[in-house]
């Protein structure tokens, strides 16, 4: 049986062309070959993608990520994808929500899967190529954070729920330990036990391998901290003022 090749007449009238890939109308029951007549290169701010397969059932890409560049923190509503590191080394960031992200370094030969609703991102520790095979939901991406200004306007709904759009979304600023130290005017070693205190706000997740905290939450904690210290000083001053002068120790 002769298989269809690019340039030959269509094997069935129901087929259509999507970015150079011939796919069939699923209502006919016919499965087109699904090969692209040429690899499509898609430029990205972090590198580029090579689309080598697009069908009604699956898609195949190679992601080339420049060293130090990072993909958006995102999730998919329906898309299910599996990845394999062809070369280089990446930092995989993923978890069930933005507040519960973990980070792992994945070298050549490493694999992982991103299921629908799972928040994820990668950062290239070295210049890297990643093979990605996924379901054919090519436009299914919700960007929660992005270094290149492409974040979607979404609410705080958990992954999998329809995101509400707003005209004036709040901007979430994140701080690592060094930035918190500069904000407080103290050393980083002073910040370490501070952020481990049970009353300190919990971290939002990882960014470039570092724990990060919400700046508004940190600011709120700093305000309460200063208020408590001021109240303690006022209390001590008042107690000293209530002590008779004769009873005060001679300095």
Strand count, sense and barrel status of the largest sheet are:
6 strands, antiparallel
The count of DSSP E runs of length 2 or more, i.e. the number of strands, is: 16
Low-confidence stretches: 1-34, 154-171
Shape: elongated
The CATH topology of the domain at 43-145, please? Jelly Rolls
Strand percentage: 25-35%
Summed over residues and divided by their number, the pLDDT gives a mean of 76
| The CATH homologous superfamily of the domain at 43-145 | Jelly Rolls
Kindly state the percentage of residues in helix.
Answer: 10-25%
CATH architecture of the domain at 43-145: Sandwich
Structural class: alpha+beta
Characterization of this structure:
This protein is of the alpha+beta class and 251 residues long. Among the domains are: 43-145, Jelly Rolls (Sandwich); 174-241, Multidrug-efflux Transporter Regulator, Chain: A, Domain 2 (Orthogonal Bundle). It has helices spanning 177-184, 188-195, 215-242, and strands at 16-18, 21-23, 35-44, 47-54, 58-65, 73-75, 81-87, 89-95, 102-107, 111-114, 119-124, 128-135, 142-145, 174-175, 205-207, 210-214. It starts with 15 loop residues before the first strand and ends in a 9-residue tail after the last helix. α1 crosses α2. The chain contains 3 helices and 16 strands. It has a 6-stranded antiparallel beta sheet, with no helix packed on it.
Keywords:
Multidrug-efflux Transporter Regulator, Chain: A, Domain 2; 251 residues; alpha+beta; Jelly Rolls; disordered N terminus
